[in-house]
Amino acid sequence: MDYDPMEGTSELFAALTRDVPLEQWEQYKEQIKLGNYIIDESEDDSYLSDRSVSPGPDEEVITNIEIVEEDEEGEEKMHESDEENDQIFWGYDAADKYAQGKISFYELNDIMKDSRSNSHPRKRRRVEEEQSAPYAELEKENEPIENTAQKAKKKIRRKKNLLPKGLEGLMGQANNYYAKGETESAIKVCMELIKTAPQAYEPFHLLGIIYDEMGEPRKAFQWYLVAAFLNPSDTDEWIRLAELCLEQNEIQQAISCYTKAIRNEPTNINFWWERCNLYEQIGERKRALYGYEMILKHLSDPQNGEKCVDMAREIAKIHHENTDDANAVRVLETSFNKFPSLITSEDVNFLLELQLGQKMYKAAVKTFVQHCGVRLKLPLGDITSVEDLNDFDNENFKALVSCIVPEVLPIDLTVKFLLCLIHLRAFKAAQPLIDSLKQENPEEMGDLFLDVAEALMEVHQYETAKPLLFALISTPTYDLPAVWMKYADCWHGLLNIPEAIQAYLKVIEMAPAYQDARLALSRIYLQMGKIEEATNILRQDYEDGEEGVVVGIDALYQRCKLLEAEGYWDQYLAAATLLQYSHCYHLETEEEFSAVITNQTCKRRVEALRDLKNQNKKPTPQFIGQTIPVTEMWNIFKKVCILLMKRKRYEELQNLSLASLSSATFMKNPTYAKDLEFQALLSCYYNGSHQYTYLLVRDLVLKYLHSNKAWNLFCLIVTCSQENRHNRFCIRLMMKHQDHLALGYLNGHNAMISGTYKHALGEYMCILKEHPNDPFAVFCVGITFIHMACQKFATKRHFLTIQGFEFLVRYAKMKGENQETFYNIGRALHQCGIKDAAIHYYKKALNCPPLITGPEQDIFDLRREIAYNLCVIYQASGAMDLVYLYSRKYIVV
């Protein structure tokens, strides 16, 4: 069962919502007089009248902070009664809601903060802008703690939360009742005091004591908490409340109590420790780290030096694990400056690694001078202290003549100092250290050799770096492709192209998958004008038929650009297609194609393909290198599709298009995803994969249900593929969208083709009711009647025939006299066996021009079909001359 912090207290606070009757005030005056506090009648009346006035909604709430202003004392007195009145209403309202459980502890905390910040406009404090804290999100929370010293300088003092003078006797009476053991009377008096003066903490504190002795610690805790808010300067009370919170396992609330205590005593290390431990328990590691750093600031006593340094080490390690090296450096530097005598060589090494990682070379030199005994020499004198380096800039470092490094300094620290000098361009001072390093054994000090060589190459000192790299490649341990690559780059930097080419070829020989070497060598060949060599050096082993090899994306992309520029389209298609498979799966089996088609989302396609690839266990190429920009990859994809379409390589086009549907890179872009789905549909259609085409076009019409173009494409594909599954699909979809025009026609056509003319007539009639002026609907109804009349066992054949031609005549009136209408009426007459009338309409249709004109009018010209039907009629009657006439005139291609 959840714990209710104010269980049992709502009855007590119910009395607070009523006004105090005049009879009770007379009784209180009598009690006050008994307590030797004599009050005049006028003072009592004025006090009562002041307290009985409720503040308006627009009046401001006054806090418990009093500002002493010598030149405005009279003005303060003038507003005093109004401020106290506002404060009583505000304090009672907050306490009442908190006691009844309407607001939480944290909301009460916010209310008290707001009440202290919203003081009278004429006495509002001006808070100076503070320096930013190490963590931006903790700055606002800890601002009152860090600025305690600044606030103390202002003329601000906290006003004691004591009872008004007129009610001190009543508070004494409550204490007297409590001392005599009359707890009920004491509680009643305290509740009336809270009603009258809710800004005073004494009655709340006494209620806490009473309930504590009554064996109700939870209720007592709530009263103690309100009292602490009204008297926030009582540090001991906040600590006691924090301990009570921990007993009830309210860690977050205990943290808030410790925060209040820290604001009162920001230099108390114990409070910081306790709050940091609580932050650790709830997983707020960042806030705990901030607290530990605040502890470091306050640990300045030499007796705490060891503790401070140990803490700094741990905090720095945590920052380093969180990849926050800048804060790690700051923490170490703070502790090192306080207690330099407690620093070990491991600490210095760790600090130097962090500083070099952050490229803080000047700070690293200061560390060497301060902790390692390094001395720097200038033409005008020596530098022996850190203060001498404060005004140093890059030009000053370049002017260094030499340096003195103690012989006892380890070689790895000496090399770190050498790296600082190199990056600061102090080459004259660094040269003796470089010469000393060359005397070492590269087999044992190879890492140090390589670090110095890389630093020299970064500042373009290739000539100095070359001997170090040559020494490394001459050893068995460091005869590696990466070292040879540095050696080749060094020769390239020296503009010695033949030596650089030989070194790069050595790298490719040792590691064929080393793409950087191929790219660098390709650029050299391009500069020399050797286009073919530049292209061939970028060729991947996978293009030669090897499986399970490493493919470099950068080199492959560069190869595609070269092949495109030179117009080697066949090689370009192979390389560009392989490049596309760097972000999607290569489909090889029927199951993989089906997995892409049947799954609707890219995530499901990837999961299905991953499972199939794991089952097949066929080696696949491993792509390495930087990712190509999406827009550039999309442009390459479009170029490949266009080239495959022009070359009629439809199978490859289908494979690539379907594979791209599994690309998260493309599919997360809505525009690319839309184009990919349509591209996959076209590729399957041109390749003759009717099953895949139907599945894709079905998904297309579901997405674009009201697009006529999508339904026209659906009809085209269904006609070409001869799929029968579309009947059930259209019927199920029609049940969901009963007013859909295209689905109505399709269901009617399907019923017509299957011979169920009554069902077709029902579908067409529903369309005709909704669209009575649609000539195509009228035509479909007429044709249906004609088919029904032509059935072998049709009843009322003549009636059906008349009905059919009635609708066809209406269709002709709506459509007008043209080739289409004459041809359709002639076909109906031909089907019914009325051949002389059919010949008449066929001839009228032949004399009409095509209904649609333009460059594609031959597609819509019906004269060939009309002439063929005439030939069939004349052939049946034996008029072969007319058959030859019409066939030669209209049908010969």
From TrEMBL:
One Pfam family this sequence matches: TPR_8
Keywords, sorted A to Z: TPR repeat
Domain of life: Eukaryota
Residue windows of the TPR repeats: 235-268
Keyword Kinase: no
Keyword Chloroplast: no
PROSITE patterns assigned: TPR
Any one annotated GO CC term: transcription factor TFIIIC complex
Designated name of the protein: General transcription factor 3C polypeptide 3
Transmembrane annotation, as ranges: none
GO biological process: transcription by RNA polymerase III
Taxonomic path: Eukaryota, Metazoa, Ecdysozoa, Arthropoda, Chelicerata
Region (Disordered): 114-141
